[in-house]
């Protein structure tokens, strides 16, 4: 073996030896701050901005969002495969993040501009900007998420790493709401003083600019904080692949076949889909539930959301410790059990039971935390099994389908909600007019959407988690077999 190979094996950044430092974990977590801020703001405010600030017809605004989601889903597996095949001195993931960070921030800001009063021009402007933004979002986010199994192979450290990631993710969601409230309070809209119901575009431009800067900076913090580790791990991967005589470049179709023949991966995406679908349905229906059923103020749903997200943030470290002691499946069962009780309980809430609403929101937040943490901690174990079976590491394609399912979960949840509310004769609000009184059928549909529907999805997810085959012991055996294969390959190359 050459001196360079001996030197590399002795490196403190050898994945089989080194532990992640606190600074590396912190930097890695920061990589999810920008994407969580932008995602949260777009979810809460973009449709309202299109209709109430830009002046788009609601149907055109919905079509813009649909086009963006469809294109977003298409580009996930494409960028996943491309990032798997990228070769550079910075490794295969970091270049995507470095070169996409600034365009990601600029295109996010561009979505909050109103360049024309012509509705046709606005439609095409927002549709094109949405496609470009979603491309750079994927170019940043997918390689970032695929870094988890590359920079550590330790079963427990991966859970710890994801704890840092989702601390920044949930924290970013909360931060985005706080920033929005501060900016909207500071930049008073003159139109409101004259009795107009139109909100000022300047508020959204400032909000977009501030969050674009924060988002881009956080990506660079991540890149330069984990650069040495990521580069060394990529060299380590190339070294191991060079020792595998069975290693062949597979076509995209062949990679898809391998991914969906990976039985543990099917369980993970099922668990994740059920959890995320429950989360998205709940998040989308909360404003209707709080305002129309609980008869609270429109701004109160943000406080309820913060109660959920704040609890999820606090519980990340708790579930991480429980996972380390009892395993990932046990942690998921505990968290989902609490979540199911809370979700089902929301159906029985009555007007005036505000304290009980916040108690259930806090309980739900404890469970939501496991939906973020556990499935994403399982995926690296799946990629280890894939390497054992195929001789290649294809984190990009696995993570691409995880992200794709997250987006389909959002799209499916919103579609089902819209269909259900329409069928239940929900009355839409009219700007500048009091909220309409909803019929009993619409109120019942809202209660079903926030209670039974997410509960059923969570129960299905629990069933899938029960049969998930990669335990701590199984993963240890996978790593031992991988180490033995690499040892044999190293000896045969000498």
UniProtKB/TrEMBL annotation:
NCBIfam families: gph. It comes from the Bacteria. CDD domains: MFS_MelB_like (cd17332). InterPro entries: MFS_2, MFS_trans_sf, Na/Gal_symport. Pfam families: MFS_2. The chain crosses the membrane at residues 41-67, 96-115, 121-142, 163-184, 204-226, 265-289, 301-319, 331-349, 355-376, 397-424, 444-468. This is MFS transporter. Coiled coil: none annotated. Keywords: Membrane, Transmembrane, Transmembrane helix.
